[in-house]
Amino acid sequence: MRKVCVYAGANLGDRTSYANEARELGKIFATEGIELLYGGSRLGLMAEIANQVLELGGAVTGVMPRGLFRGEVVHQGLSQLIEVDSMHERKKQLSDLADGYIALPGGVGTFDELFEIICWGQIGLHEKPIGLLNVDGYYTPVITLLEHAVKEGFMNESNLGLVVAADNAVDLYKKMKEYERPTMGNKWKQLDDQN
């Protein structure tokens, strides 16, 4: 993995552990020569990881829809800022550039990006690793929801292997490096019944 897209909150959250682990991940990126790809903001957990990578001499590319956000939100110290016309273009550009994806704690925007990239993996649009930095159990409800979807017959168990999770940056990075895409089951279970 030479370039990793990180989805993260535009706010810091209420626990210092969120920012601490974002910075730890930033240290790993800089040390390992991994370019950070992210939304381009100077605020929240997004900025925590970006600033850490930059402070340690690493590369950071931000992708920001032009005119969508106030100018003062855009990080002015990035290695590269790519402006696009829409949120859809932003997500596509980040995905096209990335060798993998990591979700830090965040809100609805982070969830949107995370679930879209899981869906894209499920239907075969990419075969890249997806990691959850499950700081203080932040993503445990999401993991439980995915397991519930399997239990209730809306998702194949193989889909759970599309995502790896760890409660700290060091362990998550190790899992991402060792990732092997699962053999995917048939998405349409009713077709299995017809054979």
TrEMBL record:
EC number: 3.2.2.n1
Family that this chain belongs to: Belongs to the LOG family.
Single GO cellular component term: cytosol
Molecular function via GO: hydrolase activity, hydrolyzing N-glycosyl compounds
Enzyme class: hydrolase
PANTHER family tied to this protein: LOG FAMILY PROTEIN YJL055W
Annotated transmembrane regions: none
Domain of life assignment: Bacteria
Record-level GO BP terms: cytokinin biosynthetic process
Keyword annotations: Cytokinin biosynthesis, Hydrolase
Protein name, per record: Cytokinin riboside 5'-monophosphate phosphoribohydrolase
One Pfam family of this chain: Lysine_decarbox
NCBIfam families per record: Rossman fold protein, TIGR00730 family
Organism whose genome encodes this protein: Gottfriedia endophytica
